[in-house]
Specification:
Length: 294
């Protein structure tokens, strides 16, 4: 009995990824812990007035002002991020995408967060336009976490267009410790690892990828980016078999990312590997053999 041919893997629906975007929220547990710490400090400062006069109260007062100022800054940043995520969640079809782009472009005026969201929406259809938007962001005026978001997104676009030197320059500036969200941190790691692997730092890329399991469902579509980084890392380490396995796993998440390896300018080994995987999965038809007539 002939084996049933497996159905070709379906590319991940971008609309699903947008619907599942995590809305930033204030971490009230941390706020409560900081509040308790300040109350304790105030109690100590007041209790020590007979010994250190009011110097202790003054120091705690300054510290409290700094903490409150930082808290207000984070609260505003969180509200702004949440508003942008709400806009992106509505971009699940062409009409929603156009409406979202209009909202993001309203009074953008150099707003790095809005520009980043706009670039993410246009990247799939017009990567060159997305790069132009990201390149126009003044990173010096953007919040630290947003700076790394811009670097990671622009770095991935550079890598997909074989602009490895520029991607490496951005990767060297990305700091994973500044990103609290696991999914976003995994995305940073994928970009940094691929940039390292393609510019001679294979060992560093390998060590970085060991800390992020591409198969973790919590990473969603970022898993495909981690597998992509694995492909380049294994290829650089001359482990072709592992590179092919990573590409096969990538195909189960997004065949479009595998198809990108067939594009002009890609490493010939990866191009051949990608065609074999796409043909085996049924995503593209196998070439037909033509019989020569005498």
């Amino acid at each position: 009995m002939a084996k049933k041919k497996p159905a070709p893997p379906k590319p991940r629906d971008p609309a699903e990824a947008l619907e599942n975007l995590e809305r930033p929220q204030v971490k009230w547990k941390i706020v409560a812990q900081v509040g308790v710490a300040l109350v304790v400090l105030w109690g100590l400062a007041i209790g020590l007035v007979p010994w250190v006069s009011y110097w202790g109260v003054g120091v705690v007062g300054v510290l409290t002002a700094v903490v409150l100022g930082f808290a207000i800054y984070l609260w505003r940043l969180t509200r702004k991020s949440a508003a942008i995520v709400d806009i992106l969640k509505g971009a699940t079809d062409e009409a929603g995408r156009k409406a979202a782009l209009e909202k993001l472009r309203e009074g953008k005026g150099g707003d790095a967060m809005r520009a980043l969201a706009e670039a993410q929406l246009v990247a799939r259809e017009a990567p060159a336009e997305a790069m132009r938007i990201l390149e126009g962001i003044d990173l010096k005026k953007a919040p630290a976490v947003v700076q790394d978001d811009v670097r990671a997104n622009l770095g991935m676009l550079y890598l997909m267009n074989n602009r490895t030197k520029e991607a490496r320059d951005l990767a060297d500036e990305i700091r994973l410790d500044r990103q609290p969200q696991p999914k976003a941190k995994a995305m940073y790691a994928a970009v940094v690892a691929e940039a390292f692997a393609r510019t001679g730092k294979t060992e560093e890329a390998s060590k970085l990828l060991e800390t992020y399991a591409a198969s973790d469902p919590a990473y969603g579509e970022v898993g495909a980016m981690l597998y992509r980084a694995q492909v380049y890392t294994y290829l650089a380490a001359k482990k072709r078999g592992l590179a092919k396995k990573a590409m096969e796993k990538m195909a189960t998440i997004d065949t479009n990312m595998v198809a990108a390896f067939v594009m002009k300018g890609t490493n010939p080994q990866l191009g051949k590997m990608a065609r074999e995987i796409l043909q085996a999965s049924g995503a593209v038809p196998r070439p037909k053999m033509k019989m020569m007539r005498r």
